[in-house]
Amino acid sequence: MLVAVDCIVFGFDANALRILLVQRALEPEKGKWSLMGGFVQPDEGLDAAASRVLNQLTGLENVYMEQLKTFGDPGRDPIERTLSVSYYALLDLNRFTPQLSDEYHAEWFALKKMPALIFDHSEMVAQARHMLRYKASMHPLFFELLPPRFTMPQLQALFEEVYETNFDKGNFSRKMLSTNLITKLDDKDKSGSKKGAYFYKLNRQTYKKNFRKVLHFIPNPNHLI
Fold first, then answer.
1. CATH superfamily membership of 2-136
2. pLDDT one-digit tens code per residue, 101-132
3. Which of the two residues, 127 and 190, has the higher pLDDT score?
4. In whole angstroms, what is the distance from residue 95 CA to residue 199 CA?
5. Cα–Cα distance measured from residue 48 to residue 26, given in angstroms and rounded to the nearest whole number
6. Within a 10 A sphere around the Cβ of 33, how many other Cβ atoms?
7. Sheet containing 182-189, strands listed edge to edge, beginning at the edge strand earlier in sequence
């Protein structure tokens, strides 16, 4: 029985939640879209294998990554019995895109327009998105997807993408500021309009204490588990 790791890599570009996919180089399903994965080597642990796979694709180290679950249906791989331990990773898309390896024909897709994937990879993505919703309601995971400075419209767009809902602009801004999780900066992003939007940054001194306040405006938080 073989053991593999598969990485579900999420990114955000201020408009859409995206996923990083590669074209499979081997039969079966050669040329079809796939998560980035590989077999665990005899001399490495699971976390090390997932970090190696992600580094091969992006050139990055110390990326936020967390184990999701193990997929072990006997028929999931048509060639050999293979267990796959899945991981989800969160990247600031605009910062990391230039480092993508051409070797794997990697491409970012809007999650809403994701193509069909090989084997059970679509199920992995669905479960990773569900876990992201759950974990992000209690921990500041969203800020791993944002640049160090971000605008309120960017933050709202990210919440709306992940939770597939719409928030009132004024209410979202007021409630987010009331959590004391973010700090308003003096300068503005004027790329979208002359008026511009103020930049914010995560307040790392208060987020551990105050993050659960986010639960007050997440839709149906009790249904996320």
1. Nucleoside Triphosphate Pyrophosphohydrolase (3.90.79.10)
2. 777 788 999 999 999 999 999 999 999 999 99
3. 127
4. 17
5. 23
6. 20
7. 150-151, 197-202, 182-189
